[in-house]
Amino acid sequence: MTAVPGAQSPELDLATARRQTVVDGLGIIASAGAFGFVYGLSARTAGFTPIEASAMSILVFGGAAQFAAVGYVAGGFSWLGIVLLTAFLNARHVLYSAALAPWLADRPRAERAVMAHLLTDEAFALSITHFRRLGRADRWGYWFAAIAATFVPWNLATLAGVFVGGAIPDPTQYGLGVVFPAAMAGLAVALASGRREIAAAIVGAILGVAISLAWDPAIGIIAGGLVGPLVAMALPGPPMLERYPADPFPLGVQPDRPGRLVEHDGDR
Amino acid sequence: MIDPAVDLVVLALLMGLVTYPSRALPLLFAHVGRLPPRALAYLRLVGPAVLAALAAVNTMVVVNTAPDAARSPSFYVGIEWLAVVVCAAIVAWRRNLLLGIGAAVAIVGLAKAFALA
Protein backbone atom coordinates (compact mmCIF):
# COMPACT_ATOMS: atom_id res chain seq x y z
CA MET A 1 0.00 0.00 0.00
CA THR A 2 1.42 3.33 -1.04
CA ALA A 3 0.96 6.74 0.54
CA VAL A 4 0.76 9.45 -2.09
CA PRO A 5 1.58 13.13 -1.69
CA GLY A 6 -1.63 15.09 -1.79
CA ALA A 7 -3.78 12.25 -0.63
CA GLN A 8 -7.09 13.54 0.61
CA SER A 9 -7.08 12.23 4.12
CA PRO A 10 -4.91 10.55 6.67
CA GLU A 11 -5.54 6.90 7.29
CA LEU A 12 -9.15 6.12 7.99
CA ASP A 13 -10.63 2.99 9.34
CA LEU A 14 -10.10 0.44 6.60
CA ALA A 15 -13.32 -1.45 7.21
CA THR A 16 -15.37 1.77 7.17
CA ALA A 17 -13.79 2.94 3.93
CA ARG A 18 -14.31 -0.44 2.28
CA ARG A 19 -17.91 -0.59 3.44
CA GLN A 20 -18.55 2.84 1.94
CA THR A 21 -16.93 1.78 -1.32
CA VAL A 22 -19.20 -1.26 -1.49
CA VAL A 23 -22.25 0.98 -1.00
CA ASP A 24 -20.97 3.37 -3.70
CA GLY A 25 -20.36 0.35 -5.91
CA LEU A 26 -24.04 -0.60 -5.88
CA GLY A 27 -24.78 2.32 -8.18
CA ILE A 28 -21.92 1.31 -10.46
CA ILE A 29 -23.21 -2.29 -10.53
CA ALA A 30 -26.64 -1.01 -11.59
CA SER A 31 -25.04 1.07 -14.32
CA ALA A 32 -22.81 -1.75 -15.61
CA GLY A 33 -25.73 -4.17 -15.48
CA ALA A 34 -28.11 -1.91 -17.38
CA PHE A 35 -25.66 -0.97 -20.11
CA GLY A 36 -24.23 -4.48 -20.37
CA PHE A 37 -27.75 -5.79 -20.88
CA VAL A 38 -28.47 -3.27 -23.62
CA TYR A 39 -25.12 -4.08 -25.23
CA GLY A 40 -25.93 -7.81 -25.24
CA LEU A 41 -29.33 -7.13 -26.75
CA SER A 42 -27.80 -4.86 -29.41
CA ALA A 43 -25.12 -7.42 -30.23
CA ARG A 44 -27.70 -10.17 -30.65
CA THR A 45 -29.80 -7.95 -32.89
CA ALA A 46 -26.71 -7.18 -34.98
CA GLY A 47 -26.09 -10.90 -35.49
CA PHE A 48 -23.37 -11.59 -32.93
CA THR A 49 -23.29 -15.10 -31.52
CA PRO A 50 -23.24 -15.40 -27.71
CA ILE A 51 -19.53 -16.31 -27.86
CA GLU A 52 -18.76 -13.25 -29.96
CA ALA A 53 -20.76 -10.88 -27.77
CA SER A 54 -19.08 -12.25 -24.64
CA ALA A 55 -15.63 -12.13 -26.24
CA MET A 56 -16.11 -8.40 -26.79
CA SER A 57 -17.11 -7.88 -23.16
CA ILE A 58 -14.16 -9.92 -21.87
CA LEU A 59 -11.40 -8.89 -24.28
CA VAL A 60 -12.35 -5.26 -25.01
CA PHE A 61 -14.27 -4.49 -21.82
CA GLY A 62 -15.08 -0.95 -22.90
CA GLY A 63 -18.71 0.05 -23.32
CA ALA A 64 -18.42 2.89 -25.83
CA ALA A 65 -16.12 0.94 -28.14
CA GLN A 66 -18.33 -2.15 -27.92
CA PHE A 67 -21.50 -0.24 -28.77
CA ALA A 68 -19.73 1.44 -31.68
CA ALA A 69 -18.41 -1.92 -32.90
CA VAL A 70 -21.90 -3.42 -32.88
CA GLY A 71 -23.15 -0.57 -35.05
CA TYR A 72 -20.24 -0.72 -37.42
CA VAL A 73 -20.21 -4.52 -37.76
CA ALA A 74 -23.91 -4.35 -38.58
CA GLY A 75 -23.13 -1.64 -41.12
CA GLY A 76 -20.44 -3.70 -42.79
CA PHE A 77 -17.50 -1.46 -41.88
CA SER A 78 -13.97 -2.75 -42.33
CA TRP A 79 -12.25 -4.34 -39.34
CA LEU A 80 -9.36 -1.92 -39.73
CA GLY A 81 -11.70 1.03 -39.28
CA ILE A 82 -13.35 -0.56 -36.24
CA VAL A 83 -9.99 -1.33 -34.62
CA LEU A 84 -8.73 2.22 -35.21
CA LEU A 85 -11.97 3.67 -33.84
CA THR A 86 -11.60 1.46 -30.76
CA ALA A 87 -8.07 2.73 -30.10
CA PHE A 88 -9.36 6.27 -30.45
CA LEU A 89 -12.41 5.80 -28.20
CA ASN A 90 -10.39 4.07 -25.49
CA ALA A 91 -7.39 6.43 -25.51
CA ARG A 92 -8.80 8.23 -22.46
CA HIS A 93 -7.74 5.26 -20.33
CA VAL A 94 -4.19 6.56 -20.46
CA LEU A 95 -5.27 9.35 -18.12
CA TYR A 96 -6.74 6.89 -15.64
CA SER A 97 -3.67 4.72 -15.80
CA ALA A 98 -1.35 7.68 -15.20
CA ALA A 99 -3.46 8.95 -12.29
CA LEU A 100 -3.51 5.53 -10.62
CA ALA A 101 0.18 4.80 -11.24
CA PRO A 102 1.48 6.63 -8.15
CA TRP A 103 -0.93 4.71 -5.93
CA LEU A 104 -0.15 1.29 -7.33
CA ALA A 105 3.58 1.68 -7.95
CA ASP A 106 4.58 -0.86 -5.31
CA ARG A 107 2.41 -3.66 -6.67
CA PRO A 108 4.20 -6.38 -8.67
CA ARG A 109 4.35 -5.63 -12.37
CA ALA A 110 2.39 -8.80 -13.22
CA GLU A 111 -0.43 -7.68 -10.93
CA ARG A 112 -0.44 -4.21 -12.48
CA ALA A 113 -0.59 -5.82 -15.92
CA VAL A 114 -3.82 -7.58 -14.95
CA MET A 115 -5.15 -4.48 -13.24
CA ALA A 116 -4.59 -2.56 -16.48
CA HIS A 117 -6.87 -4.80 -18.53
CA LEU A 118 -9.69 -4.19 -16.06
CA LEU A 119 -9.29 -0.41 -15.99
CA THR A 120 -12.52 1.32 -17.01
CA ASP A 121 -14.27 4.62 -16.30
CA GLU A 122 -16.09 2.98 -13.41
CA ALA A 123 -13.10 1.15 -11.95
CA PHE A 124 -11.08 4.35 -12.02
CA ALA A 125 -13.82 6.45 -10.44
CA LEU A 126 -14.53 4.03 -7.60
CA SER A 127 -10.93 3.11 -6.81
CA ILE A 128 -9.46 6.62 -6.90
CA THR A 129 -12.26 7.78 -4.58
CA HIS A 130 -11.52 4.86 -2.27
CA PHE A 131 -7.78 5.59 -2.20
CA ARG A 132 -8.30 9.30 -1.58
CA ARG A 133 -10.81 8.56 1.14
CA LEU A 134 -8.37 6.19 2.79
CA GLY A 135 -5.28 8.33 2.24
CA ARG A 136 -3.37 5.43 0.72
CA ALA A 137 -3.76 2.67 -1.83
CA ASP A 138 -5.74 -0.43 -1.00
CA ARG A 139 -5.61 -3.08 -3.68
CA TRP A 140 -8.82 -4.62 -2.37
CA GLY A 141 -10.50 -1.38 -3.44
CA TYR A 142 -9.18 -1.69 -6.96
CA TRP A 143 -10.17 -5.32 -7.36
CA PHE A 144 -13.62 -4.66 -5.94
CA ALA A 145 -14.15 -1.72 -8.28
CA ALA A 146 -12.78 -3.49 -11.34
CA ILE A 147 -14.15 -6.99 -10.90
CA ALA A 148 -17.10 -7.07 -8.51
CA ALA A 149 -18.61 -3.71 -9.45
CA THR A 150 -17.84 -3.68 -13.17
CA PHE A 151 -16.41 -6.77 -14.89
CA VAL A 152 -18.77 -9.36 -13.42
CA PRO A 153 -22.03 -7.39 -13.80
CA TRP A 154 -21.04 -6.19 -17.28
CA ASN A 155 -20.35 -9.72 -18.49
CA LEU A 156 -23.33 -11.35 -16.80
CA ALA A 157 -25.59 -8.63 -18.16
CA THR A 158 -24.10 -9.12 -21.64
CA LEU A 159 -25.10 -12.78 -21.52
CA ALA A 160 -28.54 -11.88 -20.17
CA GLY A 161 -29.02 -9.40 -22.99
CA VAL A 162 -27.99 -11.97 -25.60
CA PHE A 163 -30.07 -14.84 -24.29
CA VAL A 164 -33.20 -13.27 -22.81
CA GLY A 165 -33.03 -9.69 -24.02
CA GLY A 166 -36.06 -9.96 -26.22
CA ALA A 167 -38.25 -11.05 -23.32
CA ILE A 168 -37.28 -8.27 -20.94
CA PRO A 169 -38.01 -4.55 -21.39
CA ASP A 170 -35.06 -2.28 -22.10
CA PRO A 171 -33.92 -1.07 -18.64
CA THR A 172 -33.03 2.36 -19.98
CA GLN A 173 -36.72 3.09 -20.52
CA TYR A 174 -37.08 3.18 -16.71
CA GLY A 175 -34.49 5.90 -16.31
CA LEU A 176 -31.47 3.66 -15.75
CA GLY A 177 -29.68 5.38 -18.63
CA VAL A 178 -28.92 8.27 -16.29
CA VAL A 179 -27.07 6.07 -13.78
CA PHE A 180 -23.69 6.35 -15.48
CA PRO A 181 -23.51 10.16 -15.84
CA ALA A 182 -25.04 10.59 -12.38
CA ALA A 183 -22.45 8.25 -10.85
CA MET A 184 -19.60 10.03 -12.61
CA ALA A 185 -20.90 13.44 -11.47
CA GLY A 186 -21.34 12.22 -7.90
CA LEU A 187 -17.84 10.77 -7.76
CA ALA A 188 -16.40 13.97 -9.25
CA VAL A 189 -18.12 15.92 -6.47
CA ALA A 190 -16.70 13.51 -3.92
CA LEU A 191 -13.19 14.18 -5.22
CA ALA A 192 -13.63 17.95 -5.45
CA SER A 193 -12.47 18.84 -1.96
CA GLY A 194 -10.55 22.05 -2.73
CA ARG A 195 -10.82 25.01 -5.04
CA ARG A 196 -8.33 23.58 -7.51
CA GLU A 197 -10.22 20.27 -7.76
CA ILE A 198 -13.46 22.20 -8.26
CA ALA A 199 -11.84 24.36 -10.94
CA ALA A 200 -10.42 21.26 -12.67
CA ALA A 201 -13.88 19.65 -12.66
CA ILE A 202 -15.66 22.73 -14.01
CA VAL A 203 -13.11 23.37 -16.75
CA GLY A 204 -13.01 19.67 -17.61
CA ALA A 205 -16.80 19.56 -17.99
CA ILE A 206 -17.10 22.75 -20.06
CA LEU A 207 -14.18 21.92 -22.31
CA GLY A 208 -15.32 18.32 -22.63
CA VAL A 209 -18.74 19.33 -23.93
CA ALA A 210 -17.42 22.10 -26.20
CA ILE A 211 -14.82 19.88 -27.87
CA SER A 212 -17.23 16.94 -28.06
CA LEU A 213 -19.62 19.09 -30.04
CA ALA A 214 -16.87 20.46 -32.26
CA TRP A 215 -15.17 17.11 -32.94
CA ASP A 216 -16.04 13.98 -31.06
CA PRO A 217 -16.89 12.94 -27.47
CA ALA A 218 -13.77 10.77 -27.27
CA ILE A 219 -11.59 13.82 -27.93
CA GLY A 220 -13.71 16.00 -25.66
CA ILE A 221 -13.32 13.71 -22.64
CA ILE A 222 -9.56 13.45 -23.13
CA ALA A 223 -9.20 17.22 -23.62
CA GLY A 224 -11.29 17.96 -20.53
CA GLY A 225 -9.21 15.56 -18.47
CA LEU A 226 -5.92 16.95 -19.76
CA VAL A 227 -6.60 20.68 -19.74
CA GLY A 228 -8.83 20.97 -16.65
CA PRO A 229 -5.94 20.22 -14.25
CA LEU A 230 -3.62 22.61 -16.10
CA VAL A 231 -6.08 25.50 -15.72
CA ALA A 232 -6.66 24.61 -12.07
CA MET A 233 -2.92 24.59 -11.34
CA ALA A 234 -2.51 27.96 -13.04
CA LEU A 235 -5.05 29.65 -10.78
CA PRO A 236 -3.61 32.73 -9.08
CA GLY A 237 -3.53 33.02 -5.34
CA PRO A 238 -1.73 31.56 -2.38
CA PRO A 239 -0.63 27.95 -2.39
CA MET A 240 -3.45 25.55 -1.73
CA LEU A 241 -3.37 24.26 1.80
CA GLU A 242 -5.09 21.02 2.35
CA ARG A 243 -6.53 20.85 5.78
CA TYR A 244 -7.11 17.38 7.12
CA PRO A 245 -9.85 16.66 7.96
CA ALA A 246 -11.45 20.09 7.72
CA ASP A 247 -12.23 19.48 4.06
CA PRO A 248 -15.33 17.38 3.57
CA PHE A 249 -14.61 13.69 3.40
CA PRO A 250 -15.98 11.98 0.38
CA LEU A 251 -19.19 10.08 0.58
CA GLY A 252 -19.86 10.01 4.26
CA VAL A 253 -16.62 8.63 5.64
CA GLN A 254 -15.71 10.28 8.90
CA PRO A 255 -12.12 10.72 10.04
CA ASP A 256 -11.06 8.65 12.99
CA ARG A 257 -8.29 10.91 14.15
CA PRO A 258 -7.70 14.65 14.41
CA GLY A 259 -6.64 16.58 11.36
CA ARG A 260 -3.30 17.98 10.41
CA LEU A 261 -2.24 20.72 8.07
CA VAL A 262 -0.34 19.73 4.96
CA GLU A 263 1.13 22.15 2.48
CA HIS A 264 0.97 20.87 -1.05
CA ASP A 265 4.18 21.66 -2.90
CA GLY A 266 2.69 20.93 -6.28
CA ASP A 267 0.10 23.65 -6.00
CA ARG A 268 2.50 26.56 -5.72
CA MET B 1 -10.37 -20.43 -42.23
CA ILE B 2 -12.20 -19.00 -39.22
CA ASP B 3 -15.55 -20.41 -38.18
CA PRO B 4 -18.08 -17.70 -39.13
CA ALA B 5 -19.86 -18.30 -35.80
CA VAL B 6 -16.87 -16.99 -33.90
CA ASP B 7 -14.97 -14.82 -36.37
CA LEU B 8 -15.83 -11.68 -34.43
CA VAL B 9 -13.81 -13.13 -31.55
CA VAL B 10 -10.75 -12.27 -33.63
CA LEU B 11 -12.05 -8.73 -34.04
CA ALA B 12 -12.61 -8.54 -30.28
CA LEU B 13 -9.04 -9.70 -29.71
CA LEU B 14 -7.70 -7.00 -32.04
CA MET B 15 -9.85 -4.37 -30.32
CA GLY B 16 -8.54 -5.53 -26.95
CA LEU B 17 -4.95 -5.41 -28.20
CA VAL B 18 -5.21 -1.78 -29.33
CA THR B 19 -6.94 -0.79 -26.08
CA TYR B 20 -4.45 -2.39 -23.73
CA PRO B 21 -1.50 -0.01 -24.23
CA SER B 22 -3.50 3.05 -23.18
CA ARG B 23 -4.59 1.19 -20.06
CA ALA B 24 -1.23 -0.30 -19.23
CA LEU B 25 1.69 1.86 -20.30
CA PRO B 26 1.60 4.49 -17.52
CA LEU B 27 0.68 1.88 -14.94
CA LEU B 28 3.52 -0.43 -15.95
CA PHE B 29 6.30 1.91 -16.98
CA ALA B 30 5.82 5.32 -15.36
CA HIS B 31 8.67 5.97 -12.94
CA VAL B 32 6.36 7.62 -10.47
CA GLY B 33 8.97 7.73 -7.74
CA ARG B 34 10.87 10.26 -9.78
CA LEU B 35 7.94 12.44 -10.78
CA PRO B 36 8.22 16.03 -9.55
CA PRO B 37 5.60 17.30 -7.09
CA ARG B 38 3.90 19.38 -9.78
CA ALA B 39 3.39 16.27 -11.91
CA LEU B 40 1.88 14.41 -8.95
CA ALA B 41 -0.38 17.40 -8.24
CA TYR B 42 -1.44 17.40 -11.89
CA LEU B 43 -2.29 13.70 -11.76
CA ARG B 44 -4.28 14.30 -8.61
CA LEU B 45 -6.47 16.80 -10.46
CA VAL B 46 -7.06 14.45 -13.40
CA GLY B 47 -9.71 12.52 -11.43
CA PRO B 48 -12.20 15.32 -10.85
CA ALA B 49 -11.56 16.77 -14.33
CA VAL B 50 -12.09 13.58 -16.29
CA LEU B 51 -15.07 12.38 -14.22
CA ALA B 52 -16.77 15.76 -14.61
CA ALA B 53 -16.06 15.64 -18.35
CA LEU B 54 -17.55 12.14 -18.57
CA ALA B 55 -20.66 13.22 -16.68
CA ALA B 56 -21.16 16.39 -18.73
CA VAL B 57 -20.52 14.77 -22.10
CA ASN B 58 -22.79 11.82 -21.33
CA THR B 59 -25.55 14.21 -20.26
CA MET B 60 -25.28 16.97 -22.83
CA VAL B 61 -23.94 15.36 -26.01
CA VAL B 62 -25.57 12.68 -28.14
CA VAL B 63 -24.01 10.92 -31.09
CA ASN B 64 -25.88 9.19 -33.85
CA THR B 65 -24.22 5.77 -34.07
CA ALA B 66 -26.56 4.27 -36.62
CA PRO B 67 -24.50 2.35 -39.19
CA ASP B 68 -25.61 4.46 -42.13
CA ALA B 69 -25.39 7.82 -40.32
CA ALA B 70 -22.50 10.22 -39.96
CA ARG B 71 -20.96 10.21 -36.46
CA SER B 72 -22.10 13.75 -35.75
CA PRO B 73 -22.36 14.92 -32.11
CA SER B 74 -25.21 17.24 -31.17
CA PHE B 75 -26.20 19.19 -28.08
CA TYR B 76 -28.88 17.55 -25.96
CA VAL B 77 -31.18 19.18 -23.43
CA GLY B 78 -33.37 16.93 -21.32
CA ILE B 79 -34.57 15.87 -17.91
CA GLU B 80 -31.21 14.07 -17.44
CA TRP B 81 -29.64 17.49 -16.77
CA LEU B 82 -31.83 17.98 -13.72
CA ALA B 83 -31.27 14.39 -12.59
CA VAL B 84 -27.48 14.66 -12.73
CA VAL B 85 -27.46 18.04 -10.97
CA VAL B 86 -29.70 16.65 -8.22
CA CYS B 87 -27.40 13.64 -7.82
CA ALA B 88 -24.33 15.91 -7.55
CA ALA B 89 -26.13 18.13 -5.03
CA ILE B 90 -27.14 15.17 -2.87
CA VAL B 91 -23.59 13.83 -2.89
CA ALA B 92 -22.26 17.29 -1.92
CA TRP B 93 -24.86 17.58 0.83
CA ARG B 94 -25.26 14.06 2.20
CA ARG B 95 -22.06 12.40 0.95
CA ASN B 96 -24.18 9.50 -0.28
CA LEU B 97 -23.71 8.40 -3.88
CA LEU B 98 -26.34 5.70 -3.83
CA LEU B 99 -28.98 8.14 -2.61
CA GLY B 100 -27.97 10.56 -5.36
CA ILE B 101 -28.20 7.93 -8.07
CA GLY B 102 -31.55 6.78 -6.72
CA ALA B 103 -32.90 10.31 -6.91
CA ALA B 104 -31.57 10.73 -10.45
CA VAL B 105 -33.19 7.50 -11.64
CA ALA B 106 -36.47 8.45 -9.94
CA ILE B 107 -36.52 11.84 -11.68
CA VAL B 108 -35.90 10.38 -15.13
CA GLY B 109 -38.16 7.38 -14.54
CA LEU B 110 -41.06 9.57 -13.40
CA ALA B 111 -40.53 11.97 -16.28
CA LYS B 112 -40.69 9.07 -18.72
CA ALA B 113 -43.70 7.56 -16.96
CA PHE B 114 -45.60 10.82 -17.28
CA ALA B 115 -44.36 11.38 -20.84
CA LEU B 116 -42.38 14.45 -19.81
CA ALA B 117 -39.14 13.11 -21.30
Strands, helices and their partners?
The complex is a heterodimer of chains A (268) and B (117).
Chain A: H1 14-45, H2 50-60, H3 63-74, H4 79-89, H5 93-104, H6 109-117, H7 121-134, H8 139-164, H9 179-191, H10 195-214, H11 217-233, E1 241-244, E2 260-263
Chain B: H1 7-29, H2 37-60, E1 61-63, E2 73-75, H3 79-94, H4 97-113
Antiparallel strand pairs in B: 1-2
Helix pairs in contact in B: 3-4
Portion in beta strands of chain B: 5-15%
Q: Largest interface by residue count?
A: A-B, 124 and 85 residues
Strands of chain A, total number = 2
Integer average pLDDT of chain B: 86
Query: What can be said about the biggest beta sheet of chain B?
Result: 2 strands, antiparallel
Radius of gyration of chain A: 19 Å
Counted up, domains of chain B total 2
Commentary on this structure:
The complex is a heterodimer of chains A (268) and B (117). Chain A is built from eleven helices and two strands, in the order αααααααααααββ. Chain A is an all-alpha fold and 268 residues long. Chain A has a two-stranded antiparallel sheet. In chain A, α1 (14-45) runs antiparallel to α2 (50-60) and α1 (14-45) packs parallel to α3. The longest helix of chain A has 32 residues, at 14-45. The two termini of chain A are 27 Å apart. By secondary structure, chain B is mainly alpha-helical. Chain B has a two-stranded antiparallel sheet with strand order 1-2. In chain B, α3 (79-94) packs antiparallel against α4 (97-113). At the A-B interface, α1, α2, α3, α4 and α5 of A face α1, α2, β2, α3 and α4 of B.
